[in-house]
Specification:
GO terms for molecular function: carbohydrate derivative binding; glutamine-fructose-6-phosphate transaminase (isomerizing) activity. Helices cover 45% and strands 16% of the residues. It has 13 helices and twelve strands. The strands form three sheets. It has a five-stranded parallel β-sheet, sandwiched between helices. A five-stranded parallel β-sheet has the order 9-8-10-11-12, sandwiched between helices. A two-stranded antiparallel sheet has the order 1-2. A hairpin with a 4-residue loop joins strand 1 (31-32) and strand 2. Helix 9 packs parallel to helix 13. The radius of gyration is 20 Å and the shape is globular. The structure holds 6-O-phosphono-alpha-D-glucopyranose. The site of 6-O-phosphono-alpha-D-glucopyranose has 16 residues, from helix 4.
Length: 369
């Protein structure tokens, strides 16, 4: 096992650090920046269904559901098609409206999550076209799907998903970009710009990983808090949800992810000096707004840890702690901004002496209801 961990103390931290490579593997053979081309062998026969549909539904659980939420923003932005993101367990039981030809993406690391599998089987019977976005080759969900794309992140042993998440985001972004190009909803310049930027993501993830030691110190400062808030807007919102989930899973600390603006409608009542708020506050189109949200928390005595873009000189003056990540297009930022949150939960979990690879009560793959 020590050999399998490749010199790391845990699979989780090994897998976190593997992400520049797993994202690169995921792009290999699919992204050709020079030619301005995306090739996806897994979506051929049903590509026209994807490009012509007037509605896309993502069905998933856990971290994969968060990948679906990021994809919602990406697909709506690029393909101008309405998207819904559903918890598989709700979708399968609530008699959802499914029409012949509707496109459903099932996102699942293991490809074996029972709720996701049964949800797509039911939708398929009603005539939906299913695309499986899975990591484990030959697993049940890809077999039950019409077509799909594998995430090629390699085996993920840590129960809490890390590298599978960024691989899912990579694949879903590739699919959205390709479909937008074929639909004609993205101009050539923006398309090429995003391809070039996607190619640079592994390097930017690597730079985010270089903050590991700094994040470990921050973890030491906040590890005894009983509760955390994670706040973000737009592309930062699903990342906030994922940061909160990671912390709950790994360190058994209560945490909630929330859209930063929505905190006024309840969460702000909880804020005091004992409740740290983690902001995903990178420079993007909602930056000014999130700066005001940080001020609102500070004005109530709350502690703020902010994930910011490199060189930000505004937020460091108000936040208690900042973690810098390199800039990228806001559409691709979740792949970079989630990294510090994975590291934060890892370090808090290990400092508390927990088994981060196998947290209590959780399973890698939930194959029963
Ligand atoms: C379990 C795992 C999570 C995972 C979720 C969905 O709860 O502990 O890490 O995100 O299942 O799994 P899937 O294999 O469908 O992505």
């Amino acid at each position: 096992e020590a050999i399998e961990k490749g010199g790391y103390d845990h699979f989780m931290i090994k897998e976190i650090h593997e992400q520049p490579n797993t994202i690169r593997d995921c792009l290999r053979g699919r992204l050709d920046v020079e030619a301005g081309r995306i090739t996806l062998g897994g979506i051929r026969e049903y590509a026209a269904n994807l490009n012509n549909t007037d509605r896309i539904v993502f069905v998933a659980c856990g971290t994969s559901w968060h990948a679906g939420l990021v994809a919602e923003y990406v697909f709506e932005e690029l393909c101008r098609v309405p998207v819904e993101v559903e918890y598989a367990s709700e979708f399968r039981y609530r008699n959802p409206v499914i029409r012949e030809g509707d496109v459903i993406f099932a996102v699942s690391q293991s490809g074996e999550t029972a709720d996701t599998l049964v949800a797509i089987e039911g939708a398929k019977e009603k005539g939906a076209i299913i695309f499986g976005i899975c990591n484990v080759v030959g697993s049940s969900i890809p077999r039950a799907s019409h077509e799909g794309v594998y995430t090629h992140a390699g085996p993920e042993i840590g129960v809490a998903s890390t590298k599978a998440f960024t691989a899912q985001l990579t694949v879903l972004t590739l699919i959205a970009l390709k479909s937008a190009h074929e639909r004609g909803t993205i101009d050539d310049k923006r398309f090429r710009e995003l391809l070039a930027e996607l190619y640079r993501i592994p390097e930017k993830v690597k730079q985010a990983l270089d903050m590991d030691e700094h994040i470990r110190k921050i973890a030491g400062k906040y590890k005894d808090a009983h509760s955390f808030l994670f706040l973000g807007r737009r592309y930062g919102f699903p990342v906030a949800l994922e940061g909160a989930l990671k912390l709950k899973e790994i360190s058994y600390i209560h945490a909630e992810g929330y859209p930063a603006a929505e905190m006024k409608h309840g969460h702000i009542a909880l804020v005091d000096e004992n409740l740290p708020s983690v902001f995903i506050a990178t420079r993007d189109s909602s930056y000014e707004k999130i700066v005001s949200n940080i001020q609102e928390i500070k004005a109530r005595g709350g502690k703020v840890i902010a994930v910011v873009s490199e060189g930000d000189d505004v937020i460091p003056q108000m936040a208690d702690d900042v973690i810098e990540v390199p800039e990228t297009d806001e559409l691709l930022m979740p792949m970079v901004s989630v990294i510090p949150l994975q590291l934060l939960s890892y370090h808090i979990g290990t400092m508390k002496g927990y088994n981060v690879d196998q947290p209590r009560n959780l399973a890698k793959s939930v194959t029963v209801e």
